[in-house]
Amino acid sequence: VWLTPTTINTNALPSEEKRTNINENEMQKLRVLYESEGVLSAASFVLDGQAFTSSRVAESFDGVHYPHQVYSAGAQILCNAMDWLLPNPNKAPPKAPPQPGAMAHRLLGFMILCFAAAGVFLFDGFMGFSYLAAIFVPSVAPRRLFFEAFSTLHQKKKLPALEMQSMHHQTLHHQNSAPNPPPRGNSFKSDSPPSVVKDVDDEEATSLIGKER
Q1: pTM of the model
Q2: Per residue in 150-181, is it b (16+ CB within 10 Å) or e — as a string?
Q3: Which of 2, 12, 148, 202 could anchor a disulfide with 63, C-beta 3.0 to 4.6 Å?
């Protein structure tokens, strides 16, 4: 991009030396020199400074510089001409877009459904791979973690109880095989009926389901 000299306001130049050396006549000679030497033809785009400042020459406060709005007009001219940087438009008819389903792949779609089904029915967001870790650490099995997370919620909200029979029996067996702790200082004897104590024990056993490691 080449910018030719803007219009000079000779009368507004602050010194006699400037009025002698850089007046408008001298700038016109310089513009002609640019054109004769092939500078303008070598540039990809020429912004004619004289064209957008000649009608605003009275606003040049020191004979050379202009207010910001004048330079903004030149910048706008340059931006409007930026289409010369764009490639030539393709005049051929546009290519028809692909029809729905043309880019589909049945096998891949079926694989995605299988992964989604594994995540839903195996209670595993890792599509079943968490069961590999459960082989070595049974307490991190996805079904066990699911029961641990939601069994208490079902009890509090009086929702249908979650079924985890094997874990329930395992927990009860662990509790029955554990030795009773010796009585401590402030031991007391419960006055509750045996049936109430049994109900409390059952509730505690149910609340511990899924929390045993």
Answers
A1: 0.38
A2: ebeeeeeeeeeebebeebbeebbeeeeeeeee
A3: 12
